[in-house]
Amino acid sequence: MRRHLSARSRLTLLYTSLFALGGATLILVTYLLVAHTLNGTTTPKIPASVQQAINECVAAAQAAGSDSATKATDKCAAIYANGVQAGASAQRSTTLTHLLTYSLLSLAGVTLLAVVVGWIVAGRILRPVHRLTAAARAASEQDLSQRIALQGPRDELRELADTFDTMLERLDRAFTSQRQFIANASHELRTPLTVMRTAIDVVLAKPQPTRDELASMTVEIRQAVDHAERLIEALLVLARNDQMRTLADSLDLATVAEDALEGRIADGITTITTLGQAPVTGDAVLLERLVTNLLDNAERYNIPGGTVEISTSTDNDTSLVRVVNTGRVVPPDQIGRLFLPFTRLDDRTRHDGFGLGLALVSSITGVHGGTVHATAIPAGGLDIIVRLPRRDNAVTPASPAT
Which long-range CB contacts under 8 A does 142-149 form with residues at least 24 apart? Predict the structure, then answer.
């Protein structure tokens, strides 16, 4: 199997190669500049003092009138000039040799130092990557609590570590929410099954059950089946909302609200409507389910003789649907829990709801790129406002997280 170098080794090799290349280039340029300078300053030339001595020697020889003396003097001067030239050449060669030798030795030593320093620096630079790898290796569906929590300057590695921590946090919340959702759904589905089993066991325990007893058992089972069917339908809608959808229908929330109100019978509850134009782009079925759930929630948790007010309007770049209902007092600090699946606060457990109504409202609103806000009325009841992008400002939203 072919073995590749680690990232730390590759970084060290890269640092060293770049340093050695830069050092070699510097030595070459320095060598050429020094050689050029020596070539320009070492032309054969007799120093002035020596030239004076030679002139005096020549004058003495001429005074003697000897041709041989003149020739000897000229020959001596030529030999001296050649000696000067040879000495200059030898000095130039020695200077360049020493320069090259010392430069190469210095480059080798500094390159070795660069290897050590580069290895240490590469390790420090890659330390966050090792921590990220360790956190990713330790993370699993059962344990997503690992965090890198990298400190230091906000550079690329710090941003990568922070992004990874954010991803782990989202996954942790998603898995926790999923496990809680599955547990709650299982508990809710167990209730109608228990009712059906109890009804059947009671009748079968009798030696000869009467027709009325069988009919009563059938009614109970049918009611339990209807209960389970409504719960499963709500769960399916909630699950489908988590997927990306193409929302391209041009709608008016006023029309959607009219369709949701059509045929509704609220015993002892007065419904007040104020429907103004509220154009949106979205899915007609989902938006009708949103309004229906708001109305169901407002009626189910109302008081005898209470009221439900529903209105649609526009506000700057958003279209609104607002439902206000009377009812029991809801603690303000518990408002956020109402939009969680299978959540029914205090006396709400006495009703036949599943605790999915407002969870579906929140999910459908998120699919349409909107927001939902609930306010507890001090005298009792809730004021829920759903804001959706207007038709001319609507954009395709990302999938919401539930």
Answer: 144/168, 144/171, 144/172, 144/175, 145/172
Give the other-Cβ count within 10 Å of 94's Cβ: 10
Phi/psi of residue 91, nearest 5 degrees: -65, -40
pLDDT per residue over 196-255, tens digit each? 888 888 888 888 888 888 888 888 888 888 877 877 776 676 666 655 455 567 899 999
CA distance 25 to 368: 63
| Greatest CA separation for the chain | 168
Q: What are phi and psi of 45, to 5 degrees?
A: -155, 130
Q: Got the DSSP string for 260-292?
A: HHTT---TT-EEEEEE---EEEE-HHHHHHHHH
Output the six-digit token pair for 188: 């809710």
CA distance 75 to 93: 27
Q: Is this model's pTM higher than 0.85 or not?
A: no
Residue 196, CA distances (Å) to 210, 223, 235 in order: 18, 9, 21
Contact (CB, 8 A) for 168 and 146: yes
Rounded Cα gap, residues 140 and 337, in angstroms: 28
Instruction: Spell 348-357 as b/e; 16+ CB within 10 A means b.
Output: beeeebbbbb
Q: How far apart are alpha carbons 312 and 47 in whole angstroms?
A: 109
Residue 100: name the closest of 163, 31, 17, 48 by CA: 31
Give 308-332 pLDDT, tens digit per residue.
999 999 998 899 999 999 998 888 8
| Closest alpha carbon to 266 in 240, 296, 221, 290 | 296
